[in-house]
Design goal:
The complex is a heterodimer of chains A (305) and B (65).
Chain A lengths: L2 H27 L4 H26 L5 H26 L9 H34 L4 H23 L4 H4 E6 L1 E4 L2 E4 L2 E5 L3 H10 E8 L2 H8 L1 H15 L13 E4 L6 E6 L5 H9 L15 H7 L1
Antiparallel strand pairs in A: 1-5, 2-3, 3-4, 5-7, 6-7
Chain B lengths: L7 E7 L13 E3 L3 H15 L2 E4 L4 E6 L1
Parallel strand pairs in B: 1-2
Antiparallel strand pairs in B: 1-4, 3-4
The chains are: A alpha+beta (305), B alpha+beta (65).
């Protein structure tokens, strides 16, 4: 059989698998819909196709093919823009907003996943040609290509997986109390709640957590407002928030203890189950845009020693 | 594009006439007692989607966040 044909078909299939494999994870993490699913699948097929034909084109000395990859890169940057815009548009309709940092992260992820399809396809088709170079039978090099493709998929998946709050901090339940009208969690004043009725709701149905960062890097990450917004959003989405637009009192707010960098957050949910809240906070991804590593700097090292 | 006020005191509700000066920009509502105060604050906050904050001493402010 024609090597080009074999290489392109196998690479295309592997590229599409790379994209759809990530799409499953998508469903759990981000709200996406049948329409978005289809459009991202189609984009994934296009990305895989571009990656798949790159090596065969080179083998025919068609070096202009590289420009197609450049166009692809441009196109997938547009995907990021599109995703960002659509999430920005629905942001005012969220009871607890995601925040711009979280949106940016999601948009970046969508872009990166298309590149993942391209990379997988390129490596897969390259393997077929390497096999041909060493005079391996086409069947053997096809199987090798599938193996290489799978390894690339697993490796990229592992690389792109975001860390979670669980890895950088300890999360434990905290006590809610009122100091006059000030809602206080674990000794940190969070906000002024005037209405006695709202205070009662907080005391009866409110659950709170304290997030204790493990090291100075974690303190820096958790101080990021976008990261805190993401925690609030994730907790509200997963536990179901007891709030409507005319009840700003029950908006979850994650505040920082200025003394030690701990974060406290209270939320009034449908069912006050603190263990579920801890679970939801722990599983919140660490945003790429909030990642800081002060310990890697000279100053940071000096300060911590 | 949405336009609106933010971080702004929409109204002051109080049982203590001495608490609020004459040059207040926000409308001031005088409540007859503690219960009336709560009720007024709730009604205003529901109408304006503002948040009620307690300044203690019988004064609430409703703030748009």
């Amino acid at each position: 059989m024609d090597t080009h044909f074999v290489a392109i078909v196998i690479a295309l299939v592997m590229g599409v698998i790379a994209r759809t494999y990530m799409m499953k994870i998508d469903y759990r993490q981000y709200p996406t819909y049948p329409q978005a699913y289809l459009s991202h699948f189609t984009l994934g097929v296009i990305a895989a196709g571009l990656g798949a034909v790159a090596i065969p084109a080179f083998s025919e000395k068609e070096y202009v093919a590289i420009t197609f990859l450049a166009i692809a890169a441009q196109h997938f940057r547009d995907v990021r823009g599109m995703e960002r815009q659509s999430l920005d548009n629905i942001e005012p309709t969220e009871l607890v907003p995601k925040g711009t940092a979280y949106i940016e992260d999601i948009a970046k992820t969508f872009e990166a996943r298309n590149y993942m399809a391209i990379i997988t396809a390129v490596f897969t088709s390259a393997t077929v040609y390497i096999g041909e170079y060493f005079d391996l039978p086409i069947l053997v090099s096809s199987i090798l290509a599938i193996i290489v493709g799978s390894i690339i998929i697993v490796m990229l998946n592992r690389m792109l997986k975001p860390g979670s709050i669980e890895e950088i901090a300890e999360v434990k339940s905290a006590e809610i109390s009122f100091e006059g009208p000030i809602l206080t969690i674990a000794g940190v004043g969070v906000m002024n709640i005037g209405l006695k009725e709202s205070q009662k709701v907080f005391m009866e149905n409110g659950v709170a957590v304290e997030i204790i960062p493990k090291d100075p890097n974690a303190v820096a990450i958790l101080s990021n407002i976008g990261q805190r917004q993401a925690i609030q959003h994730n907790a509200a989405i997963q536990l179901g928030i007891r709030k409507d637009v005319d009840e700003p009192d029950f908006t979850p707010i994650a505040r920082r203890n200025p003394d030690n960098g701990n974060i406290v957050m209270a939320i009034v949910t449908r069912q006050p189950d603190v263990n579920c809240l801890i679970e939801a906070v722990k599983k919140t991804p660490v945003l790429e845009s909030s990642k800081r590593e002060p310990l890697d700097s000279e100053v940071g090292k000096k300060l911590s020693s | 594009m949405e336009f609106g006020l933010k971080e702004f005191i929409i109204a002051i509700v109080t049982t203590n006439k001495d608490m609020v000066g004459g040059s207040s920009n926000a409308p001031v509502f005088y409540a007859s007692d503690e219960e009336h105060l709560e009720r007024l604050a709730l009604l205003i906050s529901k109408t304006t989607t503002g948040m009620v904050h307690d300044l203690e001493g019988g004064t609430y402010i409703i703030v748009k966040h």
